[in-house]
Amino acid sequence: MLVHLVRHGEVRNPDGLVYGDLPGFGLSEEGRAQAHRAAARLAAYPLTAIWSSPLQRALQTAEAIAASHHLPVKVDPDLIEWRLNTWTGIPWSDLADRRPGELETYLQNPIGLDFAAESLEALAARVAGVIVRIARDDGGDLAVVAHQDPLQAARLHLLGQSLINLHIDKPGHTSVISLEPGNPWKEVAHWKPA
Q1: Tens digit of pLDDT for each residue in 136-149?
Q2: What three-state secondary structure class fits 65?
Q3: Degrees, nearest 5: CA angle 170-54-183
Q4: 84: pLDDT confidence band, cut at 50, 70 and 90?
Q5: Long-range contact list for 162-168, CB < 8 A, 24+ apart?
Q6: Of 13, 15, 83, 142, whose Cβ has the fewest other Cβ atoms within 10 Å?
Q7: CB within 8 A of 157, min separation 6: which ones?
Q8: Model's pTM, two decimal places?
Q9: CA nearest 113: which of 53, 156, 164?
Q10: 167-to-103, 129, 152, 156, 172 alpha-carbon distances in Å
Q11: Inter-CA distances, 25 with 17, 18, 126, 148, 170, Å
Q12: Which superfamily is assigned to 3-191 in CATH?
């Protein structure tokens, strides 16, 4: 059994906002193409379920994967984006001025974000908990489509690695990280689209 963690495709974001959990941020044209490449990558696996975050960009990516397997997309609200909240809706270009020091702290010590509505540890436990539950309940190969930091935090948690490594080898758009359940879990592949 393998659990394939898939980051959603590139998002249409003409204003360069930190979109977080805001509605209305779907895939760009390139993001749709990326989703189809991820679906082609996963076509050889006997997926029995595709799970997704409820956010549009993840759902659109999951739907591309589900279509090639003739499966419905299952949604779990706990696969949603990291609840940083204070950044949502701010243009990336204004973030340093409007939230001084926060981006630097996020990049240097993501464990110590006192401004975050949800700690990195809570994020990792939330998303890893969903992954463990659906792996136990669904059986067979699964795809889980969500967001960069939530997937990376869950990945580190499941592999028994330190969350301080959040920014090392993060999944890019429609990367597929294949994990084998165990104690700890084992990473067996990390596919990065060309």
Answers
A1: 999 899 999 999 99
A2: helix
A3: 50
A4: confident
A5: 163/110, 163/111, 163/120, 163/121, 163/124, 164/109, 164/110, 164/111, 166/110, 166/120, 167/107, 167/110
A6: 15
A7: 124, 125, 127, 128, 163
A8: 0.96
A9: 164
A10: 13, 21, 8, 11, 11
A11: 10, 11, 23, 15, 21
A12: Phosphoglycerate mutase-like (3.40.50.1240)
Q: How many residues does the chain have?
A: 194
Q: Give the residue among 46, 1, 6, 3 at the shortest CA–CA distance from 192.
A: 6
pLDDT digits (tens, 9 = 90+) for 156-169: 999 999 999 999 99
What is each CA distance from 125 to 37, 122, 142, 148, in whole angstroms? 29, 5, 19, 15
